[in-house]
Structure formats: structure tokens, C-alpha cells
From TrEMBL:
Domain Ammonium transporter AmtB-like: residue ranges: 29-443
Organism: Corchorus capsularis (Jute)
Cellular compartment(s): Cell membrane
Predominant subcellular localization, coarse grouping: membrane
Transmembrane region(s): 29-51, 58-80, 121-140, 152-174, 186-204, 216-236, 248-267, 279-297, 303-324, 336-358, 364-381, 393-421
Xref: Pfam families: Ammonium_transp
Protein name: Ammonium transporter
Keyword Transmembrane: yes
Amino acid sequence: MTRSLLFTLPQNLAPDQASPDWMSKGDNAWQLTAATLVGLQSIPGLLILYGGAVKKKWAVNSAFMVLYAFACVLVCWVTWGYRMSFGDKGISFWGEPNVALDGNYLITQAFSGKFPNATMIYFQFVFAAITLILIAGALLGRMNFYAWMMFVPLWLTFSYTIGAYSIWSLNGFFWKLGLIDYSGGYVIHLSSGVAGFTAAYWVGPRLTQDRERFPPNNILLMLAGAGLLWMGWTGFNGGDPYSVSTDASLAVLNTHVCTATSLLTWLALDLVFFRKPSIIGAVQGMITGLVCITPAAGVVQGWAAIIMGICSGSIPWFTMMVVHKKSELLQKVDDTMAVLHTHAVAGSLGGILSGLFAVPKLNVLFYGSAGNYIGLFYGLANNRTSHGFRQIGIQLLGILFVIGLNVVTTSLICLFVQLFVPLRMSEEDMEIGDEAAHGEEAYAIWGDDDDMPKSKAAGSVEMT
């Protein structure tokens, strides 16, 4: 006699039309949360970081470059960008442009993860947006806003989508080759660092007086933005396993350990060589730590995150403080927020260190199979030397690909844009800043003493 066991799932777990059996409510909830954390890194994180880190006369312009890019990328992303980056159809380096707005498509399962396409599109959008916003950091204080309005959709279309498809799409050339880029060390940080530096070359420098003296107008505001950037990175790296998994937890912890170590390393070097603990320097060290761990966050041990933090706090420091000052090319190009060092150098460093420290077991957790993913040190220890050297070779090849792609595409885009509008603001407008560019000022009410009402100025004099 056969006895069948029948049971009913609790109502909150039972599948229905809105929660199909392939969807994990927990994974979907975390993915939406992680995406929002990444979005907060841009709006308001980098918005107020840039707005506070520049001269007062550039606060509005710098913040508005961030706000515009965030909105513009979203519209372009759902209209054609997402399918070009992650679509089913395409060639080895580029997807086929198509809209991602159809209701039936949005509620079906994404290419990876137990959640719908709508969630994946949102998650990948905030990564695309922050990449453009990081590029803006190299161009603050002089780029013509109309040129920026053209640059954003063009660069998203002809550079970001190629990098994302090649490295992250399941059909991409470097994905199939086995490049390790856990959460964007190549696609986001190396790309934005190289593209920002290249665009800065074509746009030209700030005014001489601005390059010589460019103090932050509000360091506390800058620190608030930096804090949002750091904490938001929990979603940046913690969301990339596409599930609420042990690997996500490891990625989050490694992220913060590496970042703290990098900040302290940068601070120690500033103390040794400049005798003062620089707040701006500490923020730079924080950023390089975040960037360096990104390609490796969930595939390395905690002790490796410490080593990566020491490297990310010292090597970009050296390139910025020593190499930069001795190089004519680096001196010529006006990279306002030093994105070449904080993102391109730190991103490349993270990619190389991933090729050294990646653990086979952790690669299985993230990629689903061991394949050829193995750090060189583990290859040497496990008699898989050829696989370890192969991984380093792929990591280096990926760096060369991203550099070449962004130098070429960014240059072509800048040359195209300047056929229609100047890339750089006029000298007269740069003397004025926000008022000339937008007709608005960040601190219009409490402006310079010359602009204050006489009664207010007189009261100040009397009190002093």
C-alpha cells in the first residue's frame, strides 16, 4: 500500500502569479536593497562628495554633473543599454540594442539569479550610472555642461556596453575566457579611470589659478559623501553573487577590511612623509581600498583582503605623490579628482591581485564551477602551475583590453562632441563658475562679504 504525503506551504511561501516558483523572495529583496545602496553612492553620495570637494564657485556644476548623468543613464539603459550589455543576442564583445521595457520581459527570470529581469536591470543600471559619474570626477571645474550632456549617452553606448558585455555577459569573450572581475574592477573602475583621464586630456585643464589652488569648499560635506560611498559599497560587492549567500557575506566583510586597511596605510604614509594626517588623503586611501577589493571581494580570503589593503593604500599613493609629479604627461593632463590613480591604478592592482589570491573553492561558490579560475599562488600550491599563470595572463590581457577600448572610444567621442559644442567652458565663464554655467550659486544667501547686505556686513564688523 502506497501512502502519499501531502502538505501545504505557508501562505507567504507558496508560489503565485506574482511570486513564481523560480523566484526567491529573499534574494529578490536583497538584490533590490543592494541596488539601492549602490544608487545612494551616487545620489547623494558622490553628488555631495564632489560638491564639497571643489571650490565654492564649482559646487553646483559638479553636483549637477552627477545628477544629470544618473538620470540620463537610466533612460538610455532601459531603452537600449541593458540589452547591449547583457542581452541574449550579440557578438563576443557587444550585445544587440533593444528596449527593456516590455512588461512580459520584465517579470520573467533574469539571465542569472532567482529574481526577475526588472530587478537585474535596476541593479545593473546603478553600476552603469556610477561609472559615468566617476568619469565626471576627472572633468570637474571646466567642462562645458552641454558637452557633458552629449558625452554621457555616447560613452554609455559605445564604451560601457562593450566592456560590460565582454567581461560580464555569459556570452562575452572575457567571461568565457575566465577573467575574474567579481564586481567591476575592470568594467567600472579601470574603465572610468582611463576614460576620465583620456577625456581630461581632450577637454583641457582648469584655469591656472584653479589648478594651483583648489581647496574644498566644505570638507565635512565631502566626508559625508565619502561615508555614503563606503557604506554603499556593501551593496556594490555584496550584491554581485545575485543571492543571499555565504559568498555575499564574505564579499561584504572583505570589502570593509580592505578599505579600512587601505585608509590607515595611506594615512601612515602621509604622516611619515608630510608630517600631517590629511583628511583628503584618508578619503583617497578609502577609495583606493574600495576599488582594489572590488574585482576580488568574494573570491579571496580575509588575510588576502588585508594584503590588498596595504597594497592599495601604498601603490596608488606612490603613483599619485611621486610618479605623477615626475611625469610630464601626468602633469599636463588635469585630472581633477585623480581618478587615474584612485580608479585606474587601484582597479588594475585589484585585477592583478585577484589573479594571485583567488581561491578555487570560493570561485566555485561564485561562478558555480571551478573551471580554470585559480589564483597563481594556489596554482603553485596545488600543482596547477599552468592554470595559475594562465589566470594571471588573462587578468593582464583584460587590463590591456579595457585600457585600449577606453582610450580609443573616449577619444573618438570627445572629437565627435566638439564638432557641435566646445568641450571646455570659455575662460570668462570659468572665472565665474556656477553663476555663468547655471545662473545659480551653492551659497547664494551667504555669499562673499561683497555680496552681503550692508546691514549684515556692518553687524559682523561690530561683533568682531
